[in-house]
TrEMBL record:
Higher taxonomy: Bacteria, Pseudomonadati, Pseudomonadota, Alphaproteobacteria, Hyphomicrobiales
Taxonomic source organism: Microvirga splendida
GO molecular function: peptide deformylase activity
Residues the entry annotates as binding Fe cation: 94, 136, 140
Pfam families reported in the protein's UniProt record: Pep_deformylase (PF01327)
Protein name as annotated: Peptide deformylase
Family: Belongs to the polypeptide deformylase family.
Cofactor binding summary note: Binds 1 Fe(2+) ion.
Length: 172
């Protein structure tokens, strides 16, 4: 397993729409391992493949509270089947937007479907952190970031900050 470098805003890769996984190959299994390793190392509760620069529809998540009881999930081609009318506000962060947290309103409960690494199709209901996380990660597969739900003022402020940091890093 390898910890891969994270893709950070304003990298335009984060705006790509990822392609469906056609077949679960050894390469896909290795990618899942690397994504989990990278996510735990960060540390984060969710990671989409595009966040390590691979535009395929794959997500890893672990919303368990303790390190001794890890519950790694690998979601292949995940999709939201249903979302509740009721909304919930949760303070979100993103490994591609380091150390920035802001409240986002999303549906409180969702039903989602995905394929696991064994090729089985799974339907699951979620609320709480899992519901927020799965919506956030599926957004990544469509090139959407949580800052897109904020006011233009807030979004511009954070994007500008990271653009400046990227420029400094490039020595411009
Ligand atoms: Zn994210």
């Amino acid at each position: 397993m390898t910890i891969r470098p994270l893709v950070i805003i304003p990298d335009s890769k984060l705006r790509l729409v990822s392609e469906p996984v056609q077949e679960i190959t050894s390469e896909i299994r290795r990618l899942a391992d690397d994504m989990l390793e990278t996510m735990y190392d960060a540390p984060g509760v969710g990671l989409a493949a595009i966040q390590i620069g691979i535009p395929v529809r794959m997500v890893t998540m672990d919303v368990s509270k303790t390190e001794d009881e890890r519950q790694p999930m690998v979601l292949i081609n995940p999709e939201i089947l249903w979302a509740s009318e009721e909304k919930r506000v949760y303070e979100e962060g993103c490994l591609s937007i380091p150390e920035y947290y802001e409240e986002v309103e999303r549906p409180d409960r969702v039903r989602f479907r995905y394929m696991n690494l064994e090729g089985a199709t799974i339907e699951q209901d979620a609320d709480g952190l899992l519901a927020t996380c799965v919506q956030h990660e599926i957004d990544h597969l469509n090139g959407v970031l949580f800052i897109d739900y904020l006011s233009k003022l807030k979004r511009d402020r954070v994007v500008t900050k990271f653009k400046k940091a990227a420029k400094r890093e490039a020595g411009a």
